[in-house]
Amino acid sequence: MVTQDPADAAIEVDRDDSALIMREPIHDQILPHIRRAIVESRFKPGERLSEPQLCKQYGISRTPLRQALKSLEAEGLVRLVPHIGAIVTDPDVEDLGEKMDVLMALEQLAATRVAQARRPRVVSRIQRIYDKMCKAAESGDPDAYYQLNDTFHRAIVTGCENATLETMHQNIMWHVHRERHRVNTHEPFSVHAAEHHAEIVNAIVEGNGDAAGRAMRQHLEEVARVLLAHRKGE
Amino acid sequence: MVTQDPADAAIEVDRDDSALIMREPIHDQILPHIRRAIVESRFKPGERLSEPQLCKQYGISRTPLRQALKSLEAEGLVRLVPHIGAIVTDPDVEDLGEKMDVLMALEQLAATRVAQARRPRVVSRIQRIYDKMCKAAESGDPDAYYQLNDTFHRAIVTGCENATLETMHQNIMWHVHRERHRVNTHEPFSVHAAEHHAEIVNAIVEGNGDAAGRAMRQHLEEVARVLLAHRKGE
DNA sequence: TTAGTCAATTTCGTATACGATATTTCGTCG
DNA sequence: CGACGAAATATCGTATACGAAATTGACTAA
């Protein structure tokens, strides 16, 4: 899912101008770009996004841009202030703590439901990702590990086949990713994390919903602790 | 919060045209109106909302209308299909079940956190609402009871002072309210519900987070069961 | 009578124009 | 020299215009 994105910073956005038919609306095309820019802190928290500037930057008009900004407002990444414009949100420790609290509840629910359903395809996929994650940890490849870690958690969430849950989870994760990029450091390798992951996988394959949920919660409580400690430390 | 809304169906929307200063943007003014129309099933599920028609109806231009529709899309009340328009979503039993599942997790979290924090103002407010609810049940006033029931749950959610949780909860509740209006009948008085409510309040005043969360979950599982049974029955 | 095709109309996506509001800057006064 | 105020500028909210796509209807042929 993490593809290279060479043209992101350039004036030209990589939408297909050659084809006469334009399948995807412009606002859907630029939304990921702006979101990436915020998540990767190229647009700093508190920064005021000027519409004319962004229009020139992406070579589009104000109408689709504002539609995209409206979506970003719903995701909590910008605040749309009348007659001021779009302001990149600047969550403090309390805000992040709140989001982590909700994230824990959502992923706990997800782990519980995945374990209860125990759908073969879902379970095997989670196991496969977990195995890769272990291998990446052994061979000391942090990037691959963190990548797989995200994939692991997302696999559990999508495994529920609960669209509402998935959407809400994704919305929170943008903020988590932003915070990780902000401190420019992921949580360190942790024996606890490895143990928790193993617990989660085992509970899922055994179909023990409560255990899976508990393991996931314990895991995320530690993740949240580390993430928030970074912020408080500064 | 349930105020009468006499001018809702009329051509004129009750925004202040007399004052020269317009504090609230138009799209923020019409959003609640359209949302109410969907929640109250005046706009039927699957219905295609024509922009020109809505523009005439509310006496506004397409730009603010589409901003409002974009918000409704984020709330899951409409689907914006390119070159087709805004379609009122039509959740089936599975969709509702998913939403109720998430709702349970959110309110369980809320009850747990409120009990753990045990803030005097919040606890006393919840107790006060609970008392009124009991009185309404005794005097056989269903409307007041259901009203207070919603207030009760919302008080617990807002008592967390977790903006993320509150927003997500509200977004799901629009769908619940819509479903209740759809079957045009609330859950019947239930001794279980009364017992559960008592359990929740007791656990909160005692500061027992786990018990409060468990009680809330049990309560909502029954509520969900009744709500979904209505839908399946038809 | 029914199915298929084409044209007319409606509706949507985007761009642009205009009025209103906030911000900035510069000048003046204390 | 600093602070307050007004004009100028920049930016936002809304309305409208135009091209593109989809829907609707009629007409023709089987």
What does this structure look like?
Chain A has helices at about 25-40, 50-60, 60-75, 95-115, 120-140, 140-160, 165-185, 190-205, 210-234, and strands at about 50, 80, 85-90. Chain A contains nine helices and three strands; from the N terminus they run αβααββαααααα. In chain A, strands 1-3-2 form a three-stranded antiparallel sheet. Chain A is globular and about 55 Å long. The first copy, chain A, starts with about 25 loop residues before the first helix and ends with a helix. Mean pLDDT of chain A is about 85; it is low at about 1-20. In chain A, helix 4 (about 95-115) crosses helix 6, helix 4 runs parallel beside helix 8 and helix 5 (about 120-140) packs antiparallel against helix 8. Chain A is mainly alpha-helical and about 230 residues long. In chain A, strand 2 and strand 3 (about 85-90) form a beta hairpin. The interface between A and B is medium-sized, with 26 and 27 residues. Chain A binds a DNA duplex (30 and 30 nucleotides) through helix 3.
